[in-house]
Amino acid sequence: MNLRGIVSVSGKPGLYKVIGQNKSGFVIEGLDAQKLKLVVNLSTSKLASLEDITVFGEDEDLKLVDIFGRMKEGANVPDAKADGKALRAYFRDVAPGHDEDKVYASDMKKIINWYNILKDLPVFEEEAPAVASEEGKE
């Protein structure tokens, strides 16, 4: 799964793909059917890259990419509007070891919404690009 360049913008629903950068911020494009393009000013909005997002864990934080992978393998993703108990039961399966005191129902709903946006896109099936190693540069 290649989540590089996919971001969430504070105060805006949905997910976006970074397509460029200018002096005032980033040019982003919505991942929905409208393909709306926006310029996001970094002084007024926050961007969160999905490949960098983690979920609180009991021992160590869980990567969102790993949670999406488990969601993809399993079936029956609950509706994001399901009650908190159903979401919590589902998250015990796809994110074992998440900290139940710090991960709220709103967080689980957001992750399910993001999954539903991404699951039909080509980036969901792509392999993540390999990180260049420092050893090869010498």
Reconstruct the topology from this structure.
Layout (H helix, E strand, L loop, with lengths): L5 E4 L6 E7 L2 E6 L6 E5 L5 E3 L4 E2 L6 E2 H10 L10 H11 L10 H14 L20
Antiparallel strand pairs: 1-2, 1-5, 2-3, 3-4, 6-7
Briefly say what this structure is.
By secondary structure, the protein is α+β, with helices and mostly antiparallel strands. The protein has 3 helices and 7 strands. Helix content is 25%, strand content 21%.
Describe the protein's architecture and organization.
The protein has helices at 64-73, 84-94, 105-118, and strands spanning 6-9, 16-22, 25-30, 37-41, 47-49, 54-55, 62-63. With 138 residues, the chain is of the alpha+beta class. The chain folds into two domains: 6-50, SH3 type barrels (Roll), CATH 2.30.30; 53-124, Orthogonal Bundle (Arc Repressor Mutant, subunit A), CATH 1.10.10. The chain has a five-stranded antiparallel β-sheet, with no helix packed on it. Strands 6-7 form a two-stranded antiparallel ribbon. It starts with 5 loop residues before the first strand and ends in a 20-residue tail after the last helix.
Largest sheet, described in full?
A: 5 strands, antiparallel
What's the total helix number?
3
What is the helix fraction of residues, given as a range? 25-40%
CATH fold-type name of the largest domain: Arc Repressor Mutant, subunit A
Rg (C-alpha, Å):
16 Å
Q: Determine and state the CATH class of the largest domain.
A: Mainly Alpha
Give descriptors for this structure.
SH3 type barrels; two-stranded antiparallel ribbon; disordered C terminus; 21% strand; alpha+beta; Arc Repressor Mutant, subunit A; five-stranded antiparallel β-sheet; 138 residues
